[in-house]
């Protein structure tokens, strides 16, 4: 049996872009021959429903970088969440340094009104100017998403304390300054919080047990004789690539990711994931 663990943003799908048809076809071909395709993403499950609705057949999903999972035919499980004490510490640092941050919970994303971060967003747009139209599209998508699809609250930490039913899966920030990124890594890291980069100018703060690598180890206990593949593009995929049998990077992956992989395949935009599956895993 083969099990393919696949990142989404930048790997299976370009940000806000259409999924190449070959990627969907590859999932169905894998399932038809008795193999598994597992989405493994930094997104919360609430941010995956649109993609899941596009599928003709259900897939296993590991979300929030291993913070939870939704297996076929089973309810959602939330495994490794950030404690309220750690939330308080992290949010205090971000507030003091006027950082643009948002909080992923089991019921969606909360943040202050986006207008509070006009200066941050302007700096991010300037940072992404060398990317041309792609950079503009990224920021337009992000800003529209934060304005239209997230919940705005006056004080995020107070809101969390008033709603103890919420589970905090991760805290994510966007910051234009690379120097500030390094400072924040040092300030935010602790025995109770791991910090890593994801996508463009983002840092994520998660529970130390909330990693793609740890989630895959747990998943593979059910299939000890299976051959595992991991396909990714970003730093948050490194933990996955360390534990699978065959680590794979898409062509647009960061260099640090490519260095950890046995195979480099086609780019995300070109359907590299699906093409690889058909060429290397699907039996004739």
TrEMBL record:
Keywords: Hydrolase
Short name of any one Pfam family annotated for the protein: Hydrolase_3
Single GO term (MF): magnesium ion binding
GO CC terms of this entry: cytosol
Keyword DNA damage: no
PANTHER family given in the database record: HAD SUPERFAMILY HYDROLASE-LIKE, TYPE 3, PHOSPHOSERINE PHOSPHATASE
Protein name (Swiss-Prot/TrEMBL): Hydrolase
High-level lineage: Bacteria, Bacillati, Bacillota, Bacilli, Lactobacillales
